[in-house]
Design a protein that fits this description.
The protein has about 325 residues and is of the alpha/beta class. The chain has two domains: about 5-205, Spore Coat Polysaccharide Biosynthesis Protein SpsA, Chain A, CATH 3.90.550.10; about 215-325. It has helices at about 20-25, 45-55, 70-80, 100-110, 145-150, 180-185, 215-225, 235-245, 250-275, 280-290, 300-310, 315-325, and strands spanning about 5-10, 35-40, 60-65, 85-90, 95, 115-120, 120-125, 130-135, 160, 195-200, 205. The strands form two sheets. A seven-stranded mixed beta sheet has the order 3-2-1-4-9-6-10, sandwiched between helices. The protein is globular, with a radius of gyration of 21 Å. The termini are far apart.
């Protein structure tokens, strides 16, 4: 049996169009001491056949089928099946460079950290490729505070993570923000000496199909409903409770960092895109906003926007309509 230093977990759900590219990128790694775990989350296309063809060719590949339960459950299943101490996730429509695992693992051996986090990810469509860069780690802030920064990549991909950090993690079922909620738990378990950031381009390639209209329509449907009907918001309530369990000296800084992320990720997009914003919601949001500005400054226009809504709901709605017209 081959040696195994890194488990690469690939959740698969109806990705027959891209799956071969993903698997080939893993098998072509210069670092050979890997296992690749394919978790089929109830695919109804040809993904099963593609996976099994590759399993026959390379003993490092393992295939498991589960009833459709969502990507979080697939990742959890993959972790349970893994035999290695270090784990990396790759989405089935993405791919990694040939030297990705070698670079991650060499940094792990050099630093002995539990998380190796590459701050650069390539976003690729049919037409172009751009690099998205996360903020560099600030040693004066905790890893959890760092994780809450809006620019920091929240997904489980493009990171090499020690398997022990995944023990007793609560993974929400079929939620839009399952990556976020698992990340909060993991980053709360470490200190600055347990994480190292690398800044290497062209390691992980995140595929965004420019022909796929589902994402844009999904965003519209998500925001075009009353805020209290967006079930995923419950996750943010869970995060609040989670953070409030920290000791008092850490609580204020972490809670402010969370509020800043919450405002940038949910509240501002909701205010901008939703037709259902109410006066009562604006008052609730404003409490988050006042906390968030103590941690980081928002842009001049965003300051005006939220304050206009709070002090004059009529002019806030008018401003919202103007922005929507200008963005069309």
């Amino acid at each position: 049996m081959h040696s195994c230093q890194v488990s690469i977990i690939i959740p698969v759900y109806n990705k027959e169009k891209y799956l071969s590219r993903c698997i080939e990128s893993v098998l072509n790694q210069t670092f050979k001491d890997i296992e690749c775990i394919l978790i089929d989350d109830g695919s109804t296309d040809n993904s099963y056949s593609i996976c099994n063809e590759y399993v026959k060719k390379d003993s490092r590949l393992k295939y498991y089928y589960q009833e459709n339960s969502g990507p979080a459950a697939a990742r959890s299943n993959g972790i349970n099946k893994s035999l290695c101490d270090m784990i990396m996730f790759v989405d089935a429509d993405d791919w990694i460079s040939d030297k990705a695992i070698e670079i991650f693992y060499n940094e792990y051996k050099k630093s002995n950290c539990d998380i190796i986090f590459n701050t650069i990810i390539n976003l690729v469509t049919n037409n172009n490729s751009i690099q998205r860069k996360s903020k560099l780690l600030d040693k004066e802030k905790s890893p959890l505070e760092y994780y809450f920064h809006p620019t920091v990549e929240k997904g489980g991909c493009n990171k090499l993570i020690n398997k022990k950090l995944w023990e007793n993690i609560i993974i929400p079922d079929k939620s839009r923000y399952e990556d976020f909620i698992t990340g909060v738990q993991i980053f709360s378990r470490i200190n600055n000496s347990n994480i190292t950031c690398i800044n290497v381009p062209d390691l992980y390639f995140y595929w965004k199909d420019s022909d796929n209209k589902t994402l844009s329509s999904g965003v519209k449907n998500y925001f075009n409903k009353p805020f209290n009907e967006i079930k995923d918001i419950n996750i943010f309530n869970w995060i609040e409770i989670f953070i409030n369990n920290f000791e008092a000296d850490k609580n204020i800084k972490i809670n402010n960092a969370y509020c800043y992320f919450y405002m940038n990720t949910i509240v501002f997009p909701y205010i901008l895109k939703s037709n259902y914003i109410t006066k009562e919601q604006i008052k609730t949001f404003y409490l988050y906003y006042k906390k968030a500005v103590t941690y980081n400054k928002f842009s001049f226009l965003r300051n005006i926007y939220i304050k206009m809504f709070y002090h004059s709901f009529f002019f806030g709605k008018l401003f919202q309509k103007c922005i929507k017209i200008l963005r069309k």
